[in-house]
């Protein structure tokens, strides 16, 4: 009975292990199938061309060897052509970039589908799926490389590790990452702490995504502009291109093969055109360089239609200099797209990027565009033989930095200008040390906010900054057309007591003597040197009834309207009635001390300071 119980408890564990093994086997099989589909489609195309050829040079075995070599070349492997006229093996490392799309897409799809099994089956782990798919694909690649060694175009052994194995691994990793939802994993523990904290924030990831999109846009514009340059040059040299195409083959099957090879090399030609527009240009042999400024040396041009678009030797003309518009367009695209993310449509004021942040994203996009350009440049060229043809195509370590400089120098000012234009279009403007739109020091004083504090305090809900500028909404309308309310400055914590103490004086009579006296009294109260806030306040300015006289100690009743109880007429709210003469304004305002002026009692010509004088 105990033995049966143990078998029953272990049976689910054994079933889970078998499920994992079956999932890994399925992923391995997917890698094998992906490699077989790419190889089979290319072999079928080469076989059809061999059958349609009226005078084939070899049998079906030779056609299959050529198909195997082309399949390895599509992964970046370098082939070695042995049947040369000189008998010296010649390398063939120029990879038709259009052929790379098929193997990369098949590997990516196999790795993605391995993590999405059918219903009722267990999915393998992420690492297991990646290793299984990559192993299955590379196993087929090793068999194809062994088979191709018996033909006229074997693959170089070192190129089987790099770049062939690297291309397969990167495509499989991309497929696994896509199936997992494109996550961004944690930063390694050995990374700097500030880098870990920055990447852990969602804000950083959003900016990194914006930089990646801008870099992709710049690279796309470079490739599109290069393709337009090549197309225009082919139209300009249409006769030379046609003669080269007809000279390579005399029958329709041969011309069809040349046409397919030309189409496969179109992305290479676009990359070469982009390198030409960026400035460094490309090499047509060890002794020739083609740039917009000049075509130097004697180009070693094999007979091929795309190479007929190369400019004539000599200094560059205005048409050649027009190629510089390609990197200009790329820089504009990077700046425009970054500015669109810096000021999104319908974004709030706190969602707008600052200038420093915008510049940083543009620089990151420029670095990404330069890295992508360098990678595609390295893949688009390579030696085509020995001697002069050992250098053929653009140089990646010159073209990549050129793309970085063009996009950075043009993208930064364009992004800042478009950002400022969009903010002004929405009614926002840059204001330094200002509390509300269009308000200066006078407006701050009228609002009752001390100027030293108003320059450091933003609108409600916005953190304070010291001496920096902020984005403030101007007067006018919002994006929706509604009137934009003027921002109200928040109350200042340090002036609450003083504002409350002097608030009743706002409705006193507005005669010049009163304004001067009240101003001096307020300044004395703020300095705290008079023994109290209400010690030097004239009796005529006291709104409460029964205020004592500091000199005699008598209590003088004062009405709610602010007039003395002795019968001084008033029109209400502390304003003298019409016909009552206003007190004379003295030529000077001596300091008030203890209810007297300069230690003496006020004379008859002077206005009354206390309630007793007013009553008399």
Explain what this protein looks like in three dimensions.
This protein has 616 residues and is mainly α. Mean pLDDT is 75; it is low at 1-14, 430-484, 492-511, 527-537, 539-577, 585-589, 592-599 and 608-616. It contains 19 helices and 13 strands. The strands form 5 sheets. A 5-stranded antiparallel beta sheet has the order 6-5-4-3-7.
Task: Please tag this protein with its features.
single chain; mainly alpha; five-stranded antiparallel sheet; 6% strand; disordered N terminus
Helix content: 40-55%
Strand content: 5-15%
Largest sheet: 5 strands, antiparallel
Output the number of helix runs. 19
Distance between the termini: 121 Å
Parts with pLDDT < 50 across at least 5 consecutive residues: 1-14, 430-484, 492-511, 527-537, 539-577, 585-589, 592-599, 608-616
Global mean pLDDT:
75
Shape: flat
Write the layout of secondary structure elements.
Elements: H1 2-52, H2 60-74, E1 79-81, E2 90-92, H3 97-114, H4 126-148, H5 157-179, H6 193-200, H7 202-236, H8 238-248, H9 252-264, H10 266-278, E3 282-284, E4 289-290, E5 294-296, E6 314-315, H11 318-321, H12 325-342, H13 355-380, E7 392-393, H14 396-425, E8 428-432, H15 441-447, H16 451-454, E9 469-473, H17 496-502, H18 512-526, E10 547-548, E11 555-556, E12 592-593, E13 596-597, H19 611-615
